Queue: 3 jobs
Job 1
Amino acid sequence: MNPALVLGFVVSLLPSNGSGSSDWPQFRGPNGTGVVPAAGIPLEWSATKNLAWSTALSGQGWSQPVVVGNTIYLTTAVGEGLETPMGMQAGVDDPRTMKAGAVPDVTIDWRVVALDLTTGAERWSQSACKAKPKFPIHPSNTWATETAVADANGVYAFFGATGTLAAFDPSGKPLWKAELGSYPTTQGYGTGSSPAILDGKVFVQCFNEEKSFVVCLDTKSGKELWRLARDKAATSWSTPLVWKNQKRTELVASSGALITSSDPATGKELWHVSGVIGPTMCSFGADAERLYFGQASPGGNPPLLALNAGADGDLSPAKGSSEPKSQAWAQKASSPDMGSPVSVDGLLYLTGENLLTCRDASTGEQIYKERVPGLVTISASPIVVGDKLVLLDEEGHAAIVQVGPEFEVVGKGALEDTFWATPSVGGSALLLRGVKSLYCVRGRPTQ
């Protein structure tokens, strides 16, 4: 297998309360918030230290590995002559950032791959679909950026470039396939919104420039259970969040200009808010009390907002106001960039470039803002494993920061590859996906 699939910021080895005690069943872990219980991941790693294995993978993809039991699932796009995705600055400098590039005249094989967590050996690789792409992607994007979701019954992989949602059982046997349609995205940047999973349901957000909707399907049959159409189409790469808060469980989705919350069982709207900036490149941060969001861009940095759990109805700001109803707090010019916020122990963490900002989750007040030593551009989302915050930059440098009000780096790692995918955790293993390979870091943690 070729080295392109490992780039996914694969911290998927953190144990959690998903399908099993140490599963990482979806983007950003069991609850979609990037927070999992403590795991015995090492505090230091390199190519010669605490690297259990690395597996070269064919094709390309920024999708995060997911873990159920002792099986890793990930997705990839295989095709002759596909370009290697660029890093942040190279992608920004490329002319295709301002104007969509050409659609490659190549047949792409979109695949789902299963690996053994202990050894990294491939168990099976199955094709979900083969086709020529209809629309271009940004030079920093890939054709397999969406992270799959999985449970004890199988894996469910969505490929936005074709609109294909394909299900396979744990042995690789095809279960069902749903074609949701492929649509153009703003400036030809491509797709990237991952599905979410809950109680035998898979949720897919398709926000684009032509036909935007959120759809819920049964994981066993592929039957569509409900669908919500958006009146105005708008591209978003954020991933919908199954928000388990102190009041209820709800499905939250953002197209930037409109944020909606729905009952996951029926699709019935619980609340919506417009007139504020919601996430499009990053995803929501959340804990039991509040939802955190915003979206920085080259055009400006709007407020970082927090909404209290338990709201109902239209939360849009009143005329002449910028504050949505149920707002807990707002901090000007503090929105996250690519990495999604993560909240733990009353603290909210955000990344941007190579900076880490810590805020009080109840008030939004800044506790510290520090440049992380040894790190450059951070594109992957941070994750929290127990009381440790794991940061990974696009050049393979990692920093482990102690959770708390004082900035303290307690561990570090380094691997030679390009990393955009968010790390994953499974058992005591930390998974990091780079352009070249998938890496498993495992060892006795430093005390």
Job 2
Amino acid sequence: MLVRLKKIQEDLRSSLFFVPMLFVVGGAAFAVLMLYIDDRVDSLPSRLTATVDSSRGVLTVVASATLSFAGIAFSISLLLISLASSQYSPRVVHGLFRDPFSKRVMGVVIGTFTYCLVVMRAVRGPLEDSGSPVVPSIATLVAVVLGVISILAIIAFISHSAHSMDVSKILHRVTHQTIKRTRETWPDPVDDEDDDDDDGDDGSEWSEPSGDGCSIVFDDHGWVQQVDYPTLFELLEEGATLRLDTAPGRYAIPNTPLCTIWPAPDDIDAATREARAAIIVGQTRTTQQDAAYGVRQLADVALKALSPGVNDPTTAQDAVFHLAAVVREMLVRRPPDRGRSGDDGRRLLLPQLVTHREVIDVAFDEIRLAAAALPTVQIYLLEIFHLLSLSLDDDAPAREALNEHAAMILESSDAASIPGRDGSRVRDAYEHRFGT
């Protein structure tokens, strides 16, 4: 139940509709409140009063202007999303939808428009209805204030949007979010001096039961966003074992393995329904339980920058250094355990969860290959591998993977037939940092 509430929360945070809708409702309610106050106030200073024509004129101008501003705001947002997708990576677009500032500005503008519509409807001239004029002077004055606020909000929105396209800000946002998710979902480093395995539980001690188990398959397709582990435990009988054949960040394909249960449960249909309900599948990949998705986003920005169509090694350097900050946070922590057990003998096997080596491979494999003929980027990568190695203990298993990637950088440089001096720069950088 908790993971489904988190999914709803994630969907609302990614929606461009929900926050503006709240402002529309709030604008209408605020208009009704101001009309009620106007009806209760007997007299106002002459400078604050308005006529029927002036009230309608002010409300019409503010409503028209704010509606035009709303169109500008939506157009700028769509333009930014298009530019970010084509210039950096389609994966970073998801973060732009979550920008609360943009949604609040849209809400203020649209809420002001709604406020003006409701107040305008209440304005009456002396020849209308009962013959008594209705001029909500206070509500009209508030409309002027809201109009000014909307103008300032649009100016702030344009400034914010211009700065938000700075690649460093985009990379910082992804890096901050990924580090935050890593700290929430990955265990803290092991402090026990007797425990030398800082690479986490690799699942080797969690052997599978013998015999054929009950296999449950997916009935839907999409990205696995969350797994409700307590629900999976609850569907197991005492002494039973469940092996989960997927993980957050994997793609679900109908009729492919979801999990296997030993021994087969008495009510297979009920177990199938509960197991499928414990896996939250959505249209997009998220970082809710999949911190490695942030690594994928940063790597994609670097790859886009290294593509022939963009050819921007400086942006690639920026992305690689942000990537190093995320990878370092993961390497100093234990990956999520690949097995869990209960006091009554129930066991949950999680062989698909990501490991330190897989994080390093996802982060640098494709970038290393894309930079095979770019000695400057290769030197950046060697520097990153060196810095990451320095941040780890001497016996950390991840250091071996980093050393292997550094050696492959040198092999790629030699195989790419880089001109002599540039090739020597890469070799010298390697010898300086990893030479024996």
Job 3
Amino acid sequence: MYLIRGLHNLRSQHKGCALTIGNFDGVHLGHQAIIRHLHEQARRLNCPAGVMTFEPLPHEYFSHEKSSARLNRLREKFLALQSTRTDFLLCLKFNRQLAAMTADEFISQILVDQLNIKYLLVGDDFRFGKGRNGDFTTLKEAGEKYSFEVEDTATQVHLQERISSTRIRDALSLGQLPLAAQMLGHDYNICGRVAHGDKRGRTIGFPTANIKLFHRNIPLSGVYAVQMQMAERKILGVANIGKRPTVDGVNIQLEVHLFDFAEDIYGRHVCVNFQHKIREERKFESLDALQSQIQLDCDSAKDFFISTNSI
């Protein structure tokens, strides 16, 4: 699978494709069903299957700091799509130029001239172009004009409700990790590199791996039982994601204390899988009080892992 950043990096083998367009935030079960159908059509037409997405996401570009929390960043999205056997992920920079494109310009200049699409799969509520004036009907008419097929996606449901990134974000914010995992098809995770922190955890007997976060707006907060994946290894632990009010923290950080682990992993790329919420983050009167609570959190996490036969 190829990650293509920008139309200027397209190659001839990527053109004449079957394509779907969207944020694909989380690459949840609904997204996976869309991509399976895309592959079926690509095989029928004997052409490559591609996914088009944007950085930043359009709603982030327009709303800036007020945008909703993102489930994953581009690297995580790419890794998730790799397992779907998609031929390429085309990422367009969402900027002033792209935002100013009319629906007709987007179709003629990008979908037709640059990609020469044979088939397009989008939601029937898909809107695009300046002022969001383009819709499914616009695409159907363009398909007839430029000779490409257009189809809308079938809605995927869980517990009689539509699977969506918004539902998953809501479930995560409420601590409903099993529900989020059911819609994602896997535990929710955050991936990144282990970075140097203030090493305060060592002073109270709970050293932590600090995972560099790339977005300030994270869909969950608090203390969790987690499983950290590093290459082929999976290590159990307890994580805190938040501002660390006891030490007057300002920025959101993800810190993971791993059980029975003392290796140097600075700079390693890891994924933290969130499996069970233990409690909300709160401020303690002293480091001694925080130390006592972390021990209770570790005990709670181990009890959870025992109950799920993870230990």
